[in-house]
Design goal:
It contains seven helices and five strands; from the N terminus they run αααβαβαααβββ. With 183 residues, it is α+β, with helices and mostly antiparallel strands. The protein has two domains: 64 residues, no CATH class; 92 residues, 2-Layer Sandwich (Pantoate--beta-alanine Ligase, Chain: A,domain 2). The strands form two sheets. It has a three-stranded antiparallel beta sheet, with helices on one face. A two-stranded parallel sheet has the order 1-2. α4 links the parallel β1 and β2. The longest helix is centred in the first third of the chain and has 16 residues. It is globular and about 50 Å long.
Amino acid sequence: MYPQDHEVMVSVPRLGAIFEGAKRPGHFDGVALVVTKLLSTVSPDVAYFGQKDFQQTLVIRRLVRDLDLGTRIVVLPTVRETDGLALSSRNVRLGSHARRAAIAIPTALDEARRSFDAGVIESGELTRTVRESITAAGLHVDYVDVVDENSLESLDVCRPGAVILVAATIDGVRLIDNVILGK
């Protein structure tokens, strides 16, 4: 895939520099390059990606649109383990105590979704509740934010389609998850 002297990079600078991109500089440039190479080589009509990596799906959608790659990107719901934790290869690195604590992430997101469905639309109230629940379980919260589903811009007032993004760490394992409000 990569000649020894390859120089070309693909970047989606605005979407790729915030949240996960701020924590892992250059990560989304690598994702954008490999996905561009894959899609341009295979030329699929449709490609499927998971909602758990919500920011990544936006980066991919933007590069497909901007580069006219002609592939329809479909985002599938997050696959969850029986206890609700978002399926991730990182989960195997969680000890039993950390695993039980990590369940606070999907639990807090589900509670925020229910609060929104019950009429709570103030982003600060929802993020505060999520942050407090996750922190109380012993996780270090990297971020909790309610964002626009297309631009990742923070929202003060929630609306259907807005997304609550979460990243938290326990015992050196960084976990991400999200919920789309009003779905």
